[in-house]
Specification:
This protein has about 250 residues and is an alpha/beta fold. Helix content is about 45%, strand content about 20%. A 7-stranded mixed β-sheet has the order 3-2-1-4-5-7-6, with helices on both faces. Helix 2 runs antiparallel to helix 8 and helix 3 packs across helix 4.
Length: about 250
């Protein structure tokens, strides 16, 4: 499916899901390298901030939704040596790269990557202490449904964490970001990416995504309490986190 710039928010959910699957099937080879270059390696620090805030108290299990090449899963497993991690994604090609990463770091016994759909997770209620998604939820058309699924599969008191990029709200930061995506980004992508259209889509998906405040309200609507949003790197990225409340009457 061909991607035309500026159209991602207008696609039917089924078509957008198909587009996302095709895009991520086409770019795994240099995905990690481009992420490091395009974020000036800040993406590593953003994930580390999220991982440091994870708390495991009952199941000792983490769900990494839209795991991609398993960066978050690997980092969490290394930081919390007693946990087990399940990574879920619709892009098998990305997970194939992630599996090689897991094996290389000796984490095969604790990190499992499986295909799955964010809006119909194949896990029971209360399976995980933490459900997290790093830079993937904006690619899911039914964002609220995905948040409700993440909430369902964590234990009461468990965390739902979403690390995501937003169009900066502060005028200077927003202007610099838009200038970067229109000038430097295309040059970098043309030189390194096999599918430049995939990165045009990724930039457009940031520009059309919910504001941090809107996303926080969605997390509350999904049933989470104590929702907090932490701005990172001038508000280009936020860590959103909330807690699953106990059942009524408890």
């Amino acid at each position: 499916m061909r991607y035309d710039q500026g159209t991602c928010e207008h696609l039917h959910p089924r078509l957008r899901r198909e587009l996302v699957r095709e895009i991520f099937a086409a770019i795994p080879g240099r995905y990690d390298l481009l992420n490091r270059l395009l974020s000036a390696r800040r993406d590593v620090n953003w994930r580390r901030f999220a991982v440091e805030r994870m708390r495991f108290f009952r199941t000792g299990r983490l769900l990494d939704l839209a795991t991609g090449t398993a960066d978050l899963a690997v980092m969490a497993a290394k930081r919390h040596p007693r946990i087990r991690v399940v990574g879920v994604d619709i892009a098998r090609e990305m997970m194939a790269l992630g599996r090689r990463k897991v094996v290389k770091r000796g984490l095969s016994a604790r990190v499992t990557l499986v295909p799955g759909d964010a809006v119909a997770l194949p896990f029971g209620e209360g399976t995980f202490d933490v459900a997290a998604a790093a830079f993937g939820i904006r690619n899911i058309p039914e964002v609220l449904t995905a948040l409700r699924e993440m909430t369902r599969v964590v234990v009461p008191g468990g965390q739902v964490m979403v690390l995501e990029m937003h169009l900066p709200e502060e005028p200077l930061s927003r202007g610099l970001y838009l200038l970067y995506t229109k000038t430097a980004l295309p040059v970098i992508v043309r030189g390194l990416a096999d599918n430049p259209g995939a990165y045009r889509y990724l930039c457009d998906s940031i520009a059309s995504f919910f504001s941090p405040r809107e996303f926080g309200l969605l997390m509350s609507e999904a049933g989470l309490t104590a929702v907090r949003s932490h701005p990172l790197t001038l508000g280009l990225t936020y860590l959103h986190e909330g807690i699953k409340p106990p059942p009524p009457g408890c």
